[in-house]
Amino acid sequence: MKKLILFCFVLTILSNLCDAQKLKHIFALGDSAFMLDGKPLQLISGEMHCTRIPRAYWRQRMKMAKAMGLNTIGTYVFWNAQEPEEGKFDFTGNNDIAEFVRIAKEEGLWVVLRPSPYACAEWEFGGYPYWLLKDKDLKVRSKDPKFLKYYRDYIMQLGKQLSPLLITNGGNILMVQIENEYGSYSNDKEYLDINRKIFREGGFTGLLFTCDGPSQMPAGYLPGYLPAVNGLDNPKEVKTLINKYHEGKGPYYIAEWYPGWFDSWGNPHQGSNADEDAKKLDEVLSAGISINLYMFHGGTTRGFMNGANMGKNEPYLPQTSSYDYDAPLDESGNPTAKFYKFRAVIEKHLPAGVHLPAIPAKSKTIAIPNIKLVNKAALFANLGSPVIADKPLCFEDLGQGYGFVLYRTTLKNAASGLLKIKQMRDYATVYLNGKRISVLDRRLKQDSLQLSGEKGATLDILVENNGRINYGSYLTDNRQGITEKVTLNDQELAGWKMYKFPFSSTAGLKFSVNKESKELQPALYKGTFNLNTVGDTYLDLHSFGKGFVFLNGHNLGKYWNIGPQQTLYIPASWLKKGLNEIVVFDELKDGHKQIATLDHPILNQLNK
What we know:
This protein folds into three domains: 43-305 and 314-348, Glycosidases (TIM Barrel); 371-376 and 508-598, Galactose-binding domain-like (Jelly Rolls), CATH 2.60.120; 383-501, Jelly Rolls, CATH 2.60.120.260. It is globular and about 80 Å long. The chain is built from ten helices and 33 strands. Helix 9 packs parallel to helix 10 (337-348). The longest helix has 21 residues, at 2-22. Helix 6 links the parallel strand 7 (173-177) and strand 8 (207-212). Strands 4-5-6-7-8-9-10-11 form an eight-stranded parallel β-barrel. It has a six-stranded antiparallel beta sheet with strand order 26-15-27-32-29-30, with no helix packed on it. Strands 16-25-17-22-19-20 form a six-stranded antiparallel beta sheet, with no helix packed on it. The chain is of the alpha+beta class.
């Protein structure tokens, strides 16, 4: 009998736990505040992106968020990560956004979801998949039926993953953003309403909202839905602005507040003043305004997913792989001075008797000296089968999104004069008979060089996608590679062989003993090393030129000796006790024999 009573008691506890997990809350808009189950809720949120943080560290980063005093996580979802190729969806590994949200719930955090097909976020093409550009007539971010069809398909798949996690279904997603800073791009309210309808069809019930900069809000808000503001932190101005576009009332939500900024290659490392930021945060919280820190933790833009900025009067500027952002939590997830100052501010606004949890311990760091690079794979010795065409084809026409394409032709006649690559995107090294003769950089508006070629000479142009534009009017002009033509003395060159190097992995490359070549040519360098213990570390790339790195199959991101970033963050979870493998690609320098790591990052060193 006692066993039966105990069994029933356990069943009751388990049933109550299940009911608690299924408990539905009511989240609504009050006149001046968000309302959770009829009581005011001030969102103190911080932005993090699951794709920029190793999956093994998602929970630790969220514990850090709780320790600083955050009650909510804001997060983008990147379409090109979830659907890398048309119709091929990936919600696994670091793309498992649903698990990211579930862990947040387990850690007692709400989520503000920003799954708009356009994200910006210094992410390649603003989050749009490259394959949308295969059809040069398709117009992203518009009422183009072809675009809307792909957009709808994506949201339907995303809804299957995330709609069960909405607060209306017992989950922790409080509200969902439609589009993103649309007022910076256009002002079509019908297009915005189509966004709304697609989200509803995808199962995104509950509260929807828009966000825009102050001057962009008239064009970017959708009447009847909460307009949040980005980049404004004067409490009076925030309330006045939102009142103007939301029927004279709140709630008041700063969807992006910037206690830091991102870096671009060749420009100084960015940051902000921690004391001034803490003062602003205190003012906003004292005014009862909800806020999302962009970023609380930036992490790293891995692989080839960095975006780029460009304006009418601004050069093309690709962004670094480090997304440290001078945020309260640094690139490796450790608290900075801002973290402690913001924590102190938030503690002032806690209810009486409520205390913040202890701050988790910092991550262990290690330094690995002298990793020997004993094998080498010269790029020109690993060409494979080419695509042959009379005119050069851009990446998209070749069915390739990222990485490099080698364009090769033979000069039919001897010629000396101006070689011009019309609309070259974005970075090229040029070779004549295997000898490098020039480097062309879109940042510097370089697209031509003086050439002296003999009849029958081989001309090679290795073109890199340095990051598609993620913001502004040039967003729709994002095809990569040689997008128009190559001329020599105004005569178009024809008869091209194109060798594709997407570098989704290093499989299939032929390595041999690492020997220096006679000509300066691009190559991959491979080495192995053993570890008895693992820890976070930073790959030191001071002596290298420009390229990317694979570690144990993970693409760590890009490096470029112009800076300001001179190291690549290696998370301990990607290292192994025992044997590890590293592969470094360098398109500018040769003769590498070894590489090492440091126990700290270098993100602020520019070189000419």
